Amino acid sequence: MDNSPTALFDSYEHDFQQIVDSIGSKLNVDGKEESSEQRKAALRRVEMELDEADEMVSQMEIEIQGIPQSIKIQYQNRLRTAKADLSRYKKLSKDAYSQLSRSDLLMSSARAGIPTSDEPYGPTSDRTRLLTGTAVLEDGTRRLQDSQRIALETEDQGAEILFNLRTQREQIENARDTLRTADTAIDRASGTLKKMIRRMYQQRVVTVAIIVVLVLLVAIIIWEKVFH
């Protein structure tokens, strides 16, 4: 496990880059190659990924507080770049939604025969125009209800993602605390072991000294008995 003060920041930045790359690939797809519903589904996924990217930026802002001052400036620049990328993709997503809405409106108008600027009164009767207007209004209401439903689903998914991220952060912080505790315990055990080794050497020296003294005493006693 990397315990450097920039490890989590780098991890969040890597996740952020993967998310914005995915967003870019979805937004850069030619809309003509997709149906309206496929494009809407892609933009909904973009909205979810933008929420995830926003959370990654928030986590990076938190982690940058613990980065040493000696290298903090370069990480602040990286954070600013990430924020700029996020803002740019949010604008691109909003523009894509607007363009899709205009395209859907034009297609609906064309299918329903709604009057255009070239034919302000339209080719049909007032009753037909009234019915067409009612249909367009109902279609707009249905689209609004769909948008509200999608917004609620996105909000629920975003809340779940935020909860998961907070849980993961707590797990990482708990792992950090556990690692610090383990390091402290290892240091204490190492100190205790060193003391035990020193005592063992001291006891060996004392034992050897006693043996030497006993040998000398035995030698003296034997010498005295032999020569006296």
Notable traits:
single chain, mainly alpha, Methane Monooxygenase Hydroxylase, Chain G, domain 1, rod-shaped, t-SNARE coiled-coil homology domain-containing protein, transport, coiled coil, SNARE binding
Q: Helices and strands: which structural class? A: mainly alpha
DSSP strand count? 0
- Secondary-structure element string: HHHH
- What's the number of domains? 1
Radius of gyration: 38 Å
Helix content range of the residues, please? over 70%
Spans of at least 5 consecutive residues with low confidence: 116-124
Share of β-strand residues: under 5%
- If classified by CATH, what would the architecture be? Up-down Bundle
CATH class: Mainly Alpha
- The CATH superfamily appears as t-snare proteins
What name does the CATH topology carry?
Methane Monooxygenase Hydroxylase, Chain G, domain 1
**What is the general shape?**
rod-shaped
| Annotation field: number of helices | 4
Biggest sheet record: none
